[in-house]
Amino acid sequence: MSQLKFLLLFSLLAIGLQSCSNTESDSPAIKPQLDATAYTELLDVEYGSEERQKLDIYLPANRSTDTKVLILVHGGAWTSGQKENMNEIVDLIKAELPNLAIMNMNYRLASFGTPPFPMQIDDITLAVNFLKENKDNYVISNDIGFLGTSAGGQLSLLWSYAHDAENDVEMVASIVGPTNFTDPAYTETNEYDVFSLLAFFGLDTSTEILKTVSPYHQATASSPPTVLFYGGNDELVPNSQGDDMEAKLNELDVTHSYTFYPNQGHQFDEETIADTWVTLKSFIQIHLM
What we know:
single chain; alpha/beta; nine-stranded mixed sheet; 10 helices
């Protein structure tokens, strides 16, 4: 799936970025006792031993142990993409929500015979644990939120609903992320050929496996507040994915926001992106900050 890009083209929302006081870009080792009064970037930090297991961390100035972390998960059909695709979102969050810490992560990519599940969920778990292990050095809270686009939206929802063993997730956002692989739009039509993709990965396509990797089937009454965005002309994600996910969250009485843009595809136009950001920013402020 193609990566949804946020564009910084709505100047009414933009404010000046904070200047960098401390930048680390070449060492995976975390230096202790970082200055909490200074804005700090830690780039290409290794959270695991694999080449793709790297992340960028942006720590706001004057942070404390109450500072929450928003984790960004890129898209790319589970087979491509990189954290740098989310850099414009990073800049936007730094400008508009300057008190948040940000973790922008890479994860291992699926390929022939190498399925995305549980590999990519395991990578998210590893990255979250890495943050916890270093929270005293970074001066941050254990409380986190997720923002994922496309395949990253599915991963963000799935981890938040089914793999957050310590209930650290305060909110999760999915932009055009698939939610239910047992959807008849996938299983009973040829319009969205998800089974060919799963077969390419070597993933069992039994109903139970499909439920296991579907946020729709993993949501519970204790799932975190969720914000969803979908387009009516999406060539990759059926309309039913957003509609059914919203219905499930209603049924479970989970706090949520659902925005459906009838004329948008898998990538939103500039006006829609601006509208998405207004809703998303408000949701983050209410539920994570």
